[in-house]
Description:
By secondary structure, this protein is of the alpha+beta class. It has 7 helices and 9 strands, in the order H-H-E-E-E-E-E-E-E-E-H-H-H-E-H-H.
Amino acid sequence: LDSFPSLTARADQIKHLRKTILNLAVRGKLVPQDPNDEPASELLKRIVTEKARTRRSTITIDSELEPFAIPSSWKWVALGELVVTGPQNGISPRPTKRPDAPRAITLTATTSAVFDPTQFKHVEVDIPDESDLWLREGDLLFQRGNTREYVGIAAIYDGPPRTFLFPDLIMRVRLTELVDLRFVHLAAISPPARAYFAANASGASATMPKINQTTLVSLPVPLPPLAEQRRIVARVDDLMALCDRLEASLAAGDDIRRRLLKSLLAEALAPVEAERELEAAE
């Protein structure tokens, strides 16, 4: 937080501020923990029961390999513990100029970590309406191959059903409804997750390293109680919106930037101050 002023002098530095916000979020430092929340260990029990009915094998996290300390009410899980369908690779049929041909998204549709429906190409393929290759709302998409900076980047598909196919260089998973999809997504694009994918990507091509399905489902995810997942998502939305305004304000002058920065710091520090007051009262 003390570094925020130096991170906002130029527009290109705002991305470091965004990374800081995500880093705080997945470490339990963005919102205070509520002792009344059901702990993540109980949530995980229900997820395990659900997955047992589907007879899916589960990859777990070795306690000795946990990346960093998390609050006591949280639980480290592997992404695969939250997956109910997938991972599934897409297809890569040959492109066509026929405007009535099916549409397949390209890698650039997810590179920003937000789904972009304008990035697609028409492909020569006949896919039944009931095929699982059609994307549906809530699908979590990971890039199987890209540069080391972007390999493994994730985005949530929020478009209409039976409209887009996904390519072979993208893997799709569907998560249990017992967790907040948007929290898992922000955990998957946070700095620790990005470092994990970069370190575990491999392949003969230096410009296009790849991750496989085992690497994907082994991604360590810090899992808070469900209520806290939702609070974190809401706080991240607020702070990212302020980052958007900070970026826009750079062109408008330093005075506006300073006032917005003060607002951002107040938002970020609010849960910290609340926690200190609670500790003092106790």
